[in-house]
Amino acid sequence: MNTTLPVEIVRMSILPFEMVNAHLIIGEAGCIVVDTGVPGSEHKIERVLAQRGLGLRDIKLIVVTHAHGDHAGSAARLRELSGAPVLAHRDDLDFYTRRRPMTFCPTGWFGRLFVKTPVPHKPYTAFEPDILMGGADTINLASFGVEGIVRHTAGHTPGSIAVELKSEDALVGDLIASGILLGGIAFKGRAKRPPFEDDPLTVARELERLVHAGAKRFYMGHGGPLEAAEVLRHAQFLSRRS
Predict the structure, then answer these.
(1) DSSP state, 106?
(2) How many Å apart are CA 237 and CA 242, to the nearest integer?
(3) Chain center to CA of 30
């Protein structure tokens, strides 16, 4: 008998056309925010919460999948407003604390152009995560009201992490993307590489592991969501070209 508690995953569009997404996981006993958008996104997150009868103080945990500014940009402010701890991985710690500038490895022509603009380099308020994962640590989310874990999924950045839920949903940050340029103007169901990616072979391995572990739906920072078959196709493409 399946005793998995129901969860609702709410995509919070930080920018139009799913160009930048954060996500809200609503369980029976808790509410988790996955990624926080660009600086100043806390007001959009608050509006989404209000639409579901929730407030900032209902947030039990803030998961930041990696240190790029469109994912970590509002983490410090959201923590201040909600009182919720921030969870992240130590391999991106120097970027979160601003001890080192973020590095970018473009995946194609769009990434090469994008990295020359001020947007990827826009600073955000530095912060030290309250829960700092290390190595291959996993964090059980049961104490935050949701059935699932957070696991290290390096490849996009050194400290990328993903949320794996018992509902067969995975929230993977920028391990994968879809749509034209950033997000979902068109071809939302077609997987692609994000503008930046440190290690495509590691990304492929992590995506394949997630599919084989039973993830059926993948939620991401740009575009999506995607079904497992399309994610696996993309992972195999990355493996062949690496």
Answers:
(1) B
(2) 9
(3) 19
DSSP H helical ranges for 9-157:
42-51, 69-72, 75-82, 93-96, 109-114
Cβ atoms of residues 23 and 222 within 8 Å: no
Tokens of 73: 């940009």
Per-residue tokens: 197: 């990616």
pLDDT tens digit sequence for 60-73 = 999 999 999 999 99
Q: Which amino acid is at 73?
A: G
Tens digits of per-residue pLDDT, 102-128? 989 999 988 999 899 988 888 999 999
Tokens 């006993």, residue located: 29
Distance from C-alpha of 102 to C-alpha of 139, rounded to nearest angstrom? 25
> In sequence order, which residues have a C-beta less than 8 Å from that of residue 5 and are 6 or more positions away?
27, 28, 147, 166
Query: Which residue type does 88 have?
Result: A
**H or E element that contains 15:** strand 8-15
User: Is residue 144 helix, strand or coil?
Assistant: helix
Q: How far apart are CA 231 and CA 118, in angstroms?
A: 31
Identity of residue 146 = V
Strand partners, 177: 192
**Structure tokens given for 175:** 């391990």
